[in-house]
Amino acid sequence: MKAAVVALVLAGCGLGSVGADSDDGAGAPPGCKVGLTFDPVTPIAGATTTIRVSANVMGAPGVLGYRWLVRFGGAAVALTYAQADRSQIDFHAPVPGTYEVSLEITGSVEHCASAELPVNVRAPGARSARLRLRVVPPRTAAVPPLEKHLVIDGGAGVDLGVVGLDQGSLVTPVVEGLRGGEPAYLRFAPNAAPDAVVEGFADGAGQVAVQLLLEPHAILVVPSRPGSAPRRIVDWSPSSSVLGVDDGSPITGTVHDPADAPLAGAKVQLSIGGVPSTLATTAADGSFTVQAVAIPGAVVAVEVTPPGASGLPRLLAASPAFDLGAAWQIRYAASLARKDLAGTKVRRQGTPVGGATVVVVGALAAAGTVTAGASADASIEAMGEVRISAVASSAGALPSLLVPAAQLSAVVTVAAGDLAVVALDTTGAVPASLDAPPMQAMATAMRDPTDAGLPGAVLELVPSGALAMAAAPTRHVTSGASGALTATLAAGGHYDLRFHDPAGRAAPLLVADRVTATIAATYHLPVALQVRGKLVLGGTQALANAAVQILCEACTGIERDRPIAEAASDETGRFTLAVPDPGTR
Amino acid sequence: MRSFAAAGLLLTGCFYFDPINQRPSIDIHQRSSDTVHRGDHIVLDAVYDDPEGQDVTFAWSAFACTEVSDVSDASGTSGTSHAIDANGCDADPFYTGTEPTAFLDVPVSRSSGTPVEAIRVVLGARDDRGAAAKPSQELVIHAADAPPTLELRKVSRHGYVVGTPIDVFAKYGDPDDGPEKLNVVWKVFTPNTQPAFTLADLAVPPDGTDPAHTTSGKTLTPQGVGEWELQVIASDPLGEPAEQRVAITVAADRPPCLAQWQPIVPPSGATLPVTDPTVFRVPLVDDDLDVYPPVPGDPVLGTTTFAWSILAPGAAVRQPLAGETGNSVDFDPSAFTPGEIVELRVEIFDRAHPAIPCADNLPICPVSAAGCIQRQTWRVEVR
């Protein structure tokens, strides 16, 4: 038989650890140590499934007695003794889920604390899902966050057992520039878990104090002093006392408008392998210089934000072939015409809307070119992003507002929370008016997989498309007694629907890209399964009031930081989260 | 005629007469001098003396009695003894026996159901030749009433906050009467301001492992802060009481506190550089009733209310992000021009604190000396 999971309780000495992250007691003071192992390694529920649990007791002189208890769903499970001294038991596991095994040792001269071991029994044919578990300890604990990968099997809940956190150490490096200590913003990402970021600010003397795991980190340093280039320091050891920064290398170029005239006042910034450069503003001759740290082979992205009154779109381009040593030539497309919306009336149902805010948004496939180097790959088309805003007069008339001539959208904010999305075609004549329809009512209901209503569940209506480009806020709506809810949405607006149930009765559901008319009358949230565990700090101390989150494994960007489920650990360190059930085959 | 015969016998010495069989003398000896309670087990020994040394047969009878009174011992030397009125005992004995030693369980109640206050033990004896001890011995043993036992326990899942239920459990028993016969009275003592309250029955599942005790519960919902007291008196059928009080300090609903926030808040004078879309989040709110994340399954607990606002570059007035009532907002820096400074603010409220007690220009709003803040402000530099 192969031992699969070990749970050790170090009794007498006051140490305790249970579960997959158990402490093997190395370095612990002498005393009674109770270890539990179970076999088979990955039990699958079935009529003939038998699980053997063995106790290994050390440091407990005396004639030992073993008091076992196996519970499933709160009820005791029949067990048999596999050894005459009762140090091994067998029990059947016909149903998937967590079987909680506990053992008390009697007869020892040394006191032995009881040992507990969750045995997770898989459902036959279980599908698996890869997720991330993030634990953010309370601020008072001064403990670095934890991130770990999880594989969750479908069909039954799972108990992660002890989730151990490392106290880490307080490290106080100094951000050292060419002129001495530099104030800066810092992001420390452990190599082993890059999402478990610790942030800090270095003061005017460059000093920063952060609690880190004693392992190599990648650090993003963004100096606060203009002219100092942000940089990423890889494989940094917390035992190092200095974080060196410098001005980086200058990268120069020019920006030209569609008429090939120098464009002054444009903001230019590069991002090299995700590390930003300094921010430059083009001079009267369109020239700019940013400071950056080169990273060989990295993708270089450039972003040019023209002056707001120019009517030009923001230019975006990225390529690994850009030559940082070349003189960059950034040109708006000559074909890019602009129209002035001056005098266009903002109306609602024929009535002018004074003071309305209008954000013109849109995307242009080829709004310019970026050339940085002699190779063919170093000259690429840049896409354009339009976000140009103005406020209508009291009579509802727009002031002078240059926008690209294109198929665009206007997001009209009539009042706080009262928006509309209006198609705006400026390829021809400028429209005389922008008619913002009233908000539209929507009604839907949230139900669990058994079709029962989910009162108290939450729907987040996350703007997408034009609304998102105009930075429209997300709307949060809580369902009523029957799981039904109503809301008003921006006419013409697109939303992603994010359903979740704080009570964990069902799993979250994401429905992408809906308008009012395409929102269904009912949404059934998927089956949830419970993920439980216990946070233990330093092998002994239950960690209460920590934020515990389950996150997507494969997501990127902002979605990577958006929890699927979240909870707080209780005073015993226990937590429970409801995550989507991957199901069974 | 008879006198002659007698004289003849005396004179000759040849006549035989059986000796006169004397009565045995008896007494009752109680092995333990401890106070006897109803339900106790007692042992009595018959002490006898038969002048002829014959074996003696005993007849024990013990009767359950009610009416007992203390009277001075006739000799005046041994404190008190007990007397029972004629109608104070059951007609039928609850115990009879013929052995020299009687093992008795003092009954709790008479046959009528009334509590036993004494037992009357009668011991008779007769020797082998039928001579009966005279008089028969009688012992009245006072059966003391054991008082009830009572323990109180208070539980609040809501921090003893005003307006929330506080469960109080009374675990009571009685060694002789058992818990079923106890009369339990609850009484609430309010603070001086005499706020309203409700006291409702609380269903407590029986503990099958402890039949000697019963636990009952009440849910006190106080509508005012201060020092409350709950008194419980458990009385047995003889009126013997047990009293316990539990003090409850009812507190006001305290303001919610931001326990965690992400990302980091820059120190005064600094800005947080944001280059990519970022989730600004409050993962944890500390509060007595309206926590975040919400705790499911408790109808009293609610959840935090969040309000987010933004001070756009160049704007004089902070604008609320209408509809953003969750614990996070997405911040897309591309909605702004690089280099611009944006202030993003979150404020939290609970049911009792729907407003922020701080001026708008303060980046944080401390609401207690313990570092509790109800507002946090990020100063963001768009990059």
What does the secondary structure layout of this molecule look like, with pairings?
The complex is a heterodimer of chains A (585) and B (383).
Chain A (H helix, E strand, L loop, with lengths): L5 E5 L4 E3 L15 E7 L10 E9 L6 E8 L2 E2 L2 E3 L6 E5 L4 E10 L8 E7 L6 E9 L9 E8 L4 E8 L3 E3 L2 E4 L2 E2 L2 E7 L7 E5 L7 E3 L4 E7 L7 E6 L5 E3 L4 E8 L10 E6 L2 E2 L3 E2 L5 E6 L7 E6 L8 E6 L8 E5 L5 E3 L4 E4 L2 E2 L4 E15 L7 E13 L10 E3 L2 E9 L2 E8 L7 E3 L4 E8 L10 E7 H5 L5 E4 L5 E6 L4 E7 L8 E6 L8 E2 L3 E10 L3 E2 L4 E6 L12 E4 L5 E7 L5
Chain B lengths: L1 H11 L12 E6 L10 E9 L6 E10 L2 E5 L7 E5 L10 E3 L3 E5 L12 E10 L9 E6 L6 E7 L10 E8 L9 E7 L7 E6 L10 E10 L3 E10 L5 E10 L6 E6 L9 E3 L3 E9 L3 E2 L10 E2 L1 E7 L7 E2 L7 E4 L9 E9 L25 E8 L1
Parallel strand pairs in B: 18-26, 20-21
Antiparallel strand pairs in B: 1-2, 2-7, 3-6, 3-8, 4-5, 8-9, 10-11, 11-14, 12-15, 13-14, 15-16, 17-19, 19-24, 22-23, 22-25, 25-26
Describe the protein.
Chain A has one helix and 51 strands. Chain A is mostly beta strands and 585 residues long. Chain A has four domains: 2-166 and 530-580, Sandwich (Immunoglobulin-like); 168-298, Carboxypeptidase-like, regulatory domain (Immunoglobulin-like, Sandwich), CATH 2.60.40.1120; 310-315 and 323-435, no CATH class; 440-526, Sandwich (Immunoglobulin-like). In chain A, the strands form twelve sheets. In chain A, strands 23, 24, 25, 26, 27, 28, 29, 30, 34, 35, 37 and 38 form a twelve-stranded mixed β-sheet that branches. In chain A, β28 and β29 (314-319) form a beta hairpin. Mean pLDDT of chain A is 92; it is low at 1-28. Chain B is built from one helix and 26 strands. Chain B has one helix spanning 2-12, and strands spanning 25-30, 41-49, 56-65, 68-72, 80-84, 95-97, 101-105, 118-127, 137-142, 149-155, 166-173, 183-189, 197-202, 213-222, 226-235, 241-250, 257-262, 272-274, 278-286, 290-291, 302-303, 305-311, 319-320, 328-331, 341-349, 375-382. Chain B is rod-shaped and about 145 Å long. In chain B, 3% of the residues lie in helices and 44% in strands. The longest helix of chain B has 11 residues, at 2-12. The chains are: A mainly beta (585), B mainly beta (383). At the A-B interface, β18, β24, β41 and β50 of A face β17, β19, β23 and β24 of B.
